[in-house]
Amino acid sequence: MYDEPSIHDVTAEEAPRRRPRSRRAAAVAALAAAALFIAACEKPPYQIVFPVAGTSNYSDTFGAPRGSSTHEGQDIFGAKGQPLIAAADGTITWMRWGTGVRSGNLLQLTDDTGWYYYYIHLNNDTPGTDDGANRYDQAFADGISIGQRVKAGEVIGYLGDSGDAELTTPHLHFEIHKPGGAVINPYGALLEARRFERTPEQRVAASPAGAAEAFVLNPDGTVRITGWAIDAVRNDPVRVSAYIGGNLIATSTAGFERTDLAPRGRGTRHGYTFASVGARGGGPVPKGAEMCVVAHSIEGGGSARIGCSTAPK
Fold first, then answer.
1. Are 29 and 174 in contact (CB under 8 A)?
2. Do 280 and 168 belong together in one domain?
3. Are both 176 and 77 inside the same structural domain?
4. For the whole model, what pTM was predicted?
5. Whole domain around residue 258: which residue ranges?
6. Which of 66, 122, 269, 290 is least enclosed by beta carbons within 10 angstroms?
7. How many domains does the chain have?
8. Residue 1 lies in a domain
9. Within a domain: residue 160?
């Protein structure tokens, strides 16, 4: 008779052989548990694109207490100004650009089957500062406005700390909602998400061509802008937006007759005019302000600045 060794009696010679097996078993068990967890999570019926480009970090905080309510999304932490990516093909169906609200700058992306995604706390600061200047083009990518089609992997905005995130580390609050509105925990979808950002070449290929041919100062200090724009794929009139000082001020359609565009073989109804564009909130264009026109891609994938000028000082 002899005593069987307990785990506490393992000899020095045996230990090196047994520990690796133990670690491997633990790792396999952890991976299996993670796979089961992901499989059990409610998710959209497709693999989403991870909504933050570059390095970021997050943990599962869905349902955590938040004052009198609970957390209905996941906070993805990163650097202020980091690009935010469309999780799926879809349409921008709601936006908020402003201060004094908990969410700060936000947008809603809705896919063609009714699943939708909230992007909250988008940037409101000049790069390198915490000034709260809240330029539109430093919160949202060029061409992003309500009704805009986007493609998965397209840059749609920039990470920040607007709203009640001002005293926290910059992050994206990301929510997923089912058709009908019920919120689900995004954690499983984020764990399975693919990392993908449309390349500059893909963006250029999807972007409209065009020009802002004339910026003419009106007697009241506003500006008249004329030019043309043609979609990369379709011959339908594209939307164009006037930006003053980085802020989207007005949107129109490039649908005026321009017979000089006939040689391009894409039709002739592609001209636009902004008769009177001023500052945000009205009034004349600020002296020295940057004035730009953005042409919106009809099917998504990339919008483009087709011309800029500087207001007289």
1. no
2. no
3. yes
4. 0.87
5. 201-310
6. 66
7. 2
8. no
9. yes
Residues 81 and 126 in one domain: yes
pLDDT tens-place values along the chain, 313 residues long: 434 333 333 344 444 454 556 777 766 665 655 555 665 589 999 999 999 999 999 999 888 878 778 888 999 999 999 999 999 999 999 999 987 788 999 999 999 999 999 999 999 999 999 999 999 999 999 999 999 999 999 999 999 999 999 989 999 999 999 999 999 999 999 999 999 999 999 999 999 999 999 999 999 999 999 999 999 999 999 999 999 999 999 999 999 999 999 999 999 999 999 999 999 999 999 999 999 999 999 999 999 999 999 999 8
